[in-house]
Design brief:
heterodimer, A: about 90 residues, B: about 200 residues, mainly alpha
C-alpha cells in the first residue's frame, strides 16, 4: 500500500488530524491526507462534525457567567476571614 | 487605617484584604472548581490564594483590579496542580499508555474503527444541545470521567484558549504527548456522550 492508500483506511490517524486541525495546525500534506480520508469515510465525517460541536459546547459551558449556585459555605468563609484578619493583625 | 474608608467604597486601587472573602471568595472558588473539579482542592486553593496575596500585598500596584490580581495568583496555583498530574503521567512506565489506549477504538492493524466504537449520528452533528439540561448533565458527567491530566489539558485549551506551546511549557509535556492526550480525550468524551444520550 502506498502512503495515500494507507491514510484512506487509517481512521486513527484521521481522527488525530481532525483534532490537530481543529485547535492547532496541520501541514499541507496532512490536510491532503485528511481530505482523501474524509472523502471516503462517512464515519470519520460524523466524528469530525461531532468533535467540532463538542468543542463549541465545552467552550460555551465553561465561559458561561458564574453560576449563582456555586458558593463557598459560610463556615469556610468565616474561617478564611479569621485567617486573613489574623495575618493582618500580626 | 487611613485607607480604610476609601477602600471600603472602592474609590482607590489599593488592596482591601479584609474584604476579599466577601468580594472574591465565591468567584475564585467557582474559577477553581470549573478548572479542577474537586471541591476540597478548590477550597484549599482559594485559601492559599488569599494567603499568597497577603504575603505579596506590597507588590499589588493597582494596575489591575484586585480580582484580576488574585485570579492570576490562583491560576498559577491551578497550573501547579496540573503540572503535578502531568509529571505523574509522563513518568508512568510507557507514557504511550494514552496512545495504546486509542487502540481500544481502532483495529490494531488497519487502524479503522472497531465496529462497536464507531461514531453514529446522535443529534449533535450540527447544533449543540446545551440548551438541553439533560444533555448538559451528561456532558458534565462524561467530562468528569476523563482522567485528570486529559481534563487539565482540555480545560486549558478550551477554557483559557492557551496556545499549545504555552500549555506544553506549563505542564512540561512534549507537543506529541499533548496531541495524544487531546486525541484520546476527545475519543472517550465523544463515545461517552453517544452511549449516554441515545
Amino acid at each position: 500500500m502506498d502512503e495515500l492508500t494507507k491514510i484512506a483506511y487509517n481512521c486513527k490517524k484521521a481522527t488525530y488530524l481532525i483534532e490537530k486541525q481543529d485547535i492547532g495546525e496541520i501541514t499541507l500534506r496532512e490536510k491532503l491526507e485528511l481530505k482523501i480520508h474524509l472523502a471516503g469515510c462517512r464515519v470519520c465525517r460524523v466524528f469530525q462534525q461531532q468533535s467540532a460541536t463538542i468543542n463549541r459546547m465545552i467552550r460555551n459551558m465553561l465561559h458561561r457567567p458564574v453560576d449563582e449556585n456555586i458558593k463557598l459555605d459560610d463556615k469556610f468563609k468565616n474561617e478564611l476571614q479569621h485567617l486573613i484578619d489574623e495575618q493582618l493583625d500580626k | 487605617m487611613q485607607s480604610q474608608n476609601s477602600t471600603n467604597i472602592g474609590l482607590d486601587n489599593s488592596a482591601a484584604p479584609r474584604l476579599w472573602v466577601t468580594r472574591h471568595a465565591d468567584y475564585l472558588y467557582k474559577y477553581a472548581l470549573t478548572r479542577i473539579n474537586d471541591q476540597e482542592l478548590a477550597r484549599d486553593l482559594v485559601q492559599e490564594t488569599f494567603l499568597a496575596g497577603l504575603e505579596r500585598l506590597q507588590k499589588f500596584e493597582g494596575k489591575s483590579t484586585e480580582r484580576t490580581w488574585l485570579t492570576a495568583i490562583l491560576k498559577n496555583k491551578i497550573i501547579d496542580v496540573y503540572r503535578k498530574k502531568a509529571s505523574a503521567f509522563v513518568n508512568e512506565p510507557g507514557m504511550t499508555s494514552a496512545e495504546q489506549e486509542t487502540d481500544d477504538f481502532f483495529e490494531p492493524d488497519a487502524h479503522n474503527w472497531k465496529p462497536n466504537h464507531r461514531p453514529a449520528e446522535f443529534g449533535i452533528e450540527q447544533t449543540d444541545l446545551l440548551e438541553s439540561k439533560e444533555f448538559e448533565l451528561i456532558l458534565q458527567k462524561c467530562l468528569r470521567k476523563l482522567p485528570s491530566l486529559w481534563l487539565s489539558v482540555f480545560t486549558m485549551k478550551h477554557l483559557d484558549d492557551e496556545p499549545t506551546d504555552i500549555i506544553c511549557n506549563d505542564l512540561r509535556i512534549s507537543p506529541s504527548n499533548f496531541w495524544v492526550i487531546i486525541h484520546r480525550a476527545k475519543l472517550s468524551l465523544r463515545e461517552c456522550l453517544q452511549k449516554n444520550w441515545i
